[in-house]
Design goal:
By secondary structure, the protein is an alpha+beta fold. It is built from five helices and twelve strands.
């Protein structure tokens, strides 16, 4: 005798499978299995695998995070996480020290150059403008006054406005960094500088330039500097900043 399925099952007959079991020593019985159940289980397994992969990725990024020896007023964890994966491999695993900041040293490009004297290591420039936009540049050479451009193809521009974006060397020209007493220039060519700062580290500008094929780093091509920091990589160990990276 065929029995009608319960009303709750009639609405989605296509989602179920009815299996009939019988045997010499087994009482006959019927088992109802939802067809989409294996798919649901597979989805759960895939989700668990995805979460495990994401956890591994997070652990990998955390391993790349630089150890800050000093307090930063501009760099937070999410900034470091984004920057870490774009730093050259040779910089990973070394502590970062604050070489210059407008909060500690005042607003003077000459003072910035003096703080770089004697250094022979890459530096990270971090700028925060009056619109609270954070951006800057990674330079393979410390900033200094020079009659010619310096740096290598590992130099890049970056911005967090509105989301993180790194602009690497395009190969178009080699105008990486040019230091003068009246200004600091990063990237150049027809159209303007990728990042330009005046002698007082007060006014700045960012235009699209052939060196990095970048978009302006801030929401405005010309901006006013609120704060500025320069971090340098040191081979020597240093005690980490114990109050966090904020």
């Amino acid at each position: 005798m065929r029995r009608a399925l319960p009303r709750t099952m009639q609405t989605k007959v296509e989602d179920i499978r009815v299996l009939y079991f019988a045997g010499d020593r087994v009482e006959p019985y019927v088992q109802i299995i939802a067809v989409n159940e294996p798919k649901r289980r597979q989805s759960i397994c895939s989700s668990e695998e995805s979460e495990a992969e994401e956890s591994d990725d997070r652990a990998y990024v955390e391993d790349l995070l630089p150890m800050l020896c000093d307090h930063s007023q501009l760099l937070e964890d999410h900034h470091l996480e984004s920057l870490a994966t774009h730093m050259p491999a040779r910089t990973q695993g070394y502590p970062w020290q604050l070489a210059y900041s407008t909060a500690d040293h005042g607003t003077s490009l000459k003072t910035l150059y003096r703080s770089m004297a004697g250094l022979d290591s890459p530096v990270l420039l971090v700028v925060k403008d009056m619109n609270n936009k954070v951006f800057g540049a990674f330079s393979t050479s410390p900033f200094r006054v020079s009659d010619y451009c310096y740096g290598t193809g590992e130099t890049f521009l970056y911005t967090f406005s509105p989301d993180f974006k790194a602009y690497r060397w395009s190969g178009e020209n080699s105008y990486f960094v040019s230091g003068h007493l009246e200004s600091l220039q990063i990237g150049g060519g027809v159209g303007g500088f990728g990042l330009w700062l005046d002698a007082d580290l007060y006014r700045g500008a960012s235009y699209s330039c052939p060196t990095f094929c970048n978009q302006p780093l801030s929401t405005e091509e010309e901006f006013i500097v609120q704060d500025l920091e320069v971090w340098t990589i040191q081979n020597a160990t240093c005690p980490p900043y114990t109050k966090g990276r904020k």
